[in-house]
Amino acid sequence: MSAEEILSKRLAAWSAMGFDAERCPVRNVLDRIGDKWPTLILIVLAAGPKRFSALGRAVPDISKRMLTQTLRDLERDGLLTRKVFPTKPPSVEYSLTALGRSALEPMAALVEWAERRHPEIEAARARFDRDAEAA
Amino acid sequence: MSAEEILSKRLAAWSAMGFDAERCPVRNVLDRIGDKWPTLILIVLAAGPKRFSALGRAVPDISKRMLTQTLRDLERDGLLTRKVFPTKPPSVEYSLTALGRSALEPMAALVEWAERRHPEIEAARARFDRDAEAA
DNA sequence: ATAGAGCAGTCTCTAAATGAGACCAATCAT
DNA sequence: ATGATTGGTCTCATTTAGAGACTGCTCTAT
Lengths: 135, 135
Hints:
The structure is a homodimer. The first copy, chain A, has 6 helices and 3 strands.
């Protein structure tokens, strides 16, 4: 099945369910993993488990607030686990679950696409901006 | 190369460039196509060209404001083209470019993942919420 | 002829999400 | 004693998204 067919089929299916965002996997699931921070966190954890502040260092421009929230969301979705070690001060380790690891494959495909097409997209943007300025 | 390797490699590369969001393809490109509305618009256009209000009807809960903005962004990125026909009232047709169509494949992979894993994710959420309530 | 609807948007106002950064208690190194 | 690190929470300001009125033009139905 071609990509067009798959996507059009999905669209039809969820049009049939009245576009209920609660029940539609695309909105429900991709809203989360398509997002900026969740994506980055999953990529960082692809290399192995990391602790809270190590994640913060690995993604320097995320705020602690967003880091906490993103980790909670991903934990709730079962994509990663949170293990607290009763050291002092406590250390908390985050690691991908099997489900989380299974997300890496489609994500890698998307990242590769982004890399490969980045120059074209940059060129398109430059063209668009130049044309807009000319008008 | 495994998904882990690909992603870790990308992470390292862009860590080396100081996490500059401007130059990093992942942030730069995926911020757009990973997002909710752009994804949905591209999926709708996968079936063929559509006009502005047809797109609005196909994605009923997008506001005109967001629809306009999303279409402009995608046009700027070279993923779709906007053709104005000088009818009265003017009709405007949006269609995917080759670049836009090339995005469908990785997107379809992600959508298929989302569909396949949706039940697991739902179950994980239910478990998480139950445990949180118990505590 | 005239009211209503559709076209492709723009504009404004409000509501929600995000980011920046102070603060917490405990512990270790200097 | 000072400062740093641990994993967060909390508040406040900024940014972003959403709801919906409004535009000018045309076609249709009454």
